[in-house]
Structure formats: C-alpha cells, structure tokens
Specification:
Order of helices and strands: HH
Helix content: 25-40%
Structural class: mainly alpha
Distance between the termini: 23 Å
Length: 58
C-alpha cells in the first residue's frame, strides 16, 4: 500500500515538457458554453494548462 509510481512521459506536442500532468485542461466546448464561469475559474487558478497546480497539489 502507498502511492502509485508515476512515470513522466512526453506527449506529442510536448505539452507537458516531459513531466507528469497535474490536471486536465478544460474542453474546447466549455469555452463557448460556460465562458463566464470558466473565465473566473481560470483567473483563480492562473492558467489552463496540464501543469497548473490545483488545490491538492501545493
């Protein structure tokens, strides 16, 4: 028992720069359907990126 062993990968396009992603980016459709709330969420988290830290990843 314990934490899983994660292996860093470099996805096509190198969007993670060979590191383990911390979160999933918002879907493209979310920008058109929920733009007001999405803009506020991105403002609070500072970036919509695979590498943006989230609340549990301090």
């Amino acid at each position: 028992m314990g934490y899983p062993v994660l292996t860093p990968v470099n996805f096509p396009g190198k969007v993670t720069n060979g590191t383990i992603p911390r979160r999933i980016k918002y879907l493209t459709g979310e920008y058109s359907v929920n733009s007001t709330n999405l803009a506020e969420a991105i403002k609070r988290q500072r970036n919509d990126s695979f590498l943006t830290k989230i609340w549990w990843n301090k």
